[in-house]
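Re: [help] complex structure
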Amino acid sequence: MDTKKKILDVALTLFSEKGYGNVYVGQIAEGVGIKAPSLYKHYKCKQDIFNAILDEMRERYNQKAADLNLNGDDILMDSEVCKNASEDDLVKMGAGLFSFFLHDEYECKFRKMLTLEQFSDKELAGLFSNQYFDEPLKYQSGMLQFLIMQGKLKGDDADIMALQFFSPIYLLMTVCDRQPKREKECLQKLERHIRQFSRIYKGEDK
Amino acid sequence: MDTKKKILDVALTLFSEKGYGNVYVGQIAEGVGIKAPSLYKHYKCKQDIFNAILDEMRERYNQKAADLNLNGDDILMDSEVCKNASEDDLVKMGAGLFSFFLHDEYECKFRKMLTLEQFSDKELAGLFSNQYFDEPLKYQSGMLQFLIMQGKLKGDDADIMALQFFSPIYLLMTVCDRQPKREKECLQKLERHIRQFSRIYKGEDK
DNA sequence: GTCTATAAGAAGATAGAC
DNA sequence: GTCTATCTTCTTATAGAC
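Output below.
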């Protein structure tokens, strides 16, 4: 097995749990199954391991972005889905996405690691905001804009609608990140949120 | 000046910037203006300083909660305010609260410190969720419930309405916490969010 | 590439003078 | 209560054998 890669895996796991400063090179080595000095044959220093994780992160992100742009109509695709979907389908979609981001090993660890390092320098702060604020909002705003143009939703400010759709989902996810036992409760709130959002912006104010 | 208290101040500042594990006793002492060993006349160990900060945090929180319960009709008071307030007044109130929590020295540092330590143990995770999820939602849900009963707002699920009102505000605050330069942009989004929320739940779907 | 041994230094904490 | 000196342990990182 690729030791160099495994070091990153173990390090990411530990960094996401304790934060960079509370993880020792020896712990990473132990997780990999080697001794600390062997680790320095793969990376020059501890900081290099962290940087390599960030590089991997960016690479995955660019890959995802490229995928989305290749089938550039993906936003439209999704919108068609939403357009033809019942409220139940929307809930299923939302819950599915929520569960994916909550449980996907990489998504989850990257998110926690960035959460712990977000104040340590400006680049990391920017990375965090990009991944968990600007990009999701941009994407969802585009979708909502399309649905509005199709006359499927009412509203004149898709950006704010996206903020109102996304923020509760994100907040519920952070609750689950720190208190996994509350997942069921959060999923229920997520469902109620999506149903209400869907009803409200269809103009069917109950 | 009270050295024991100043140690907590300096430590909180450092912990909120770097996280517990990345702050050294010597740095705290330096900030206070004494040498590290002197610090041990006030606190038994580094962890004790952290615990003392938490104790102070809880004390302040209980004090706030007690204040709210003493004039137990505070929720109702606030609701009266909202009830008679124009959309502009609501925006002003929201922006004021936002700015307070964003800039109040203690609120800001506590929030950042908890953000960095939320995964380090279950008690801190619970504390975080309480302060920045459950309690705000409980309070705002009560207010919204009252406004619904008064016929001022439409809706049948005050909890979810509170989630939809609060989440964007919280999320915008976290953006400012890590990227202070985005405050103006976030304040604008906050205003648009509150205006839209207000309009939507008044049933005046535009 | 992995190991043992070890250097070099940092960090938490204590002893004891003032 | 503050200081200097010091201890101990931990931590990163290197040297060099295998």
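The two ends of chain A are 58 Å apart (CA to CA).
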